[in-house]
Amino acid sequence: MSEEKQPRKKSSVRHTRAIQKSRISHPTAAPSDEQIQERIQEMVHPATLAQVSYFHSLGLRERTLGFVVMVAFVLELIWRHIGSVNALSKVVQKESILWVQPRKISQQALSDRLTTLPSELFLRVLLDVLPKAQERWQERKRPLSPELQWALEHYSEVMAVDGSTLDALIRKIGLLQGLPQNPLAGRMTALLDLCSRLPKKIWYKGDVNANDQSFWSDILSVLTTGSLLIFDKGYINFSIFGKLTKSDLKFITRGKTNLVYTIERAIIRTAAVHDYIVWIGQDETRQQVRLVEILYRGKWYRYMTNELDDKKLPTAYVVALYWQRWRIEDAYYIVKRLLGLAYFCSGAQNAVELQVWATWLLYVVLIDLTDAVAESLNLPISAISVEMVYRSLYFFTYAKKKGEADDVVDYLAKEAKFLGIIKLKRSDQNPSPLLFIPKLLTLQEKP
User: Fold this and answer.
1) Given 31, 129, 146, 349, which residue has the most CB atoms within 10 angstroms?
2) Phi first, then psi: what are they for 299, rounded to 5°?
3) Where are the beta strands (DSSP E) in 270-426?
4) Separation between Cα atoms, residue 310 and residue 265, nearest integer Å
5) Which domain holds residue 146?
6) pLDDT tens digits, residue range 139-190?
7) Is 184 helix (H, G, I), strand (E, B) or coil?
8) Structural contact between residues 320 and 434, judged by C-beta atoms closer than 8 angstroms
9) Distance CA 204, CA 258 (A)
10) Structural domain tally of the chain?
11) What number of CA atoms fall less than 13 Å from residue 222's CA on the CB side?
């Protein structure tokens, strides 16, 4: 009798062959409104010009497709979801692209430039834009969600870190043609400011087998003393926990179901809420942490933090702040699905990296625009749908052509309800931990 075939394990990576096919066959979108282009130019162009001297220091010479020109072309490729390098080569011959006038360029010249122009230049532009975007966020006046407002008053930064595997490359050119299956494009890790939704740092590795633990040294090198870091179970490392504590860095993470620990004392013990000081680890990694367990909708959820004082970090805020970790998942959705980092215009490693950094640049521009809309509406950015802001730019372009709108932020704020920009309010069936945990604390422990 033949051996029973085992079911294939479901991949954790959402391959996007359908997205890739749709992107290639989709007609090229019309140019963005001038005001939207000016917004991109305002934030990115000065940082691009600031890298020209570094460009020359690498021994690179100016040409038709110089660095400043290529930044504009790649941003346009991503923002308008242009389906191929061939289509882009046609567009740039007929249209002004951001700060670049039309010019005759061949598909081959564009393809070659994508593979040879050092992607590090795009990364340097991104790193120049990020702190300036953070300054713009700080200058605006708009409320924060209650848990983040509280955390910002108690910690120097509230950060979340997570990684994401990039999708499959198309096997069409070069060395990829002989491969038996589409290779994945690598793995990226982002350190996200949960209040502003802006990344502080992003790392990329072409090795798709690079796990979350391999990024810890990079993460530790950029954290600020007094910060709160939130991460999922993939980053659990008792040795790193000790380093965080010694560096005056607080963390919140999930506790694994097989966690081995010894209870030192109980801070809270009710029928639905446990808050303990426990010992974890062995030998050099033996240390104390707080273990918070919450019974929510019939299931126990477990969280860990190295903030042992429940007066400095109350039980409800441990859970509420961990729930904010989902904002980094939102960021990856915007980058990969909304801005199209599920599709790569070239399989060359340099072109992939270049597209990664350029897509995050546009993410920063989009978040900055969303935050401006939030300020105009006097709402937290968490109440605004970034996706609907992006999709609503079509309606602004149309309204401006008809003379019905002048300013993109004013228009989006005025039409926010019609365009679905304001998210629906949380239902009573899905309350914030700041609301349901105090109720759980009133329940007595069962004998």
Assistant:
1) 129
2) -130, 140
3) 273-280, 287-296, 299-305
4) 13
5) 142-331
6) 999 999 999 999 999 999 999 999 998 876 554 544 444 444 556 668 899 9
7) strand
8) yes
9) 31
10) 1
11) 17
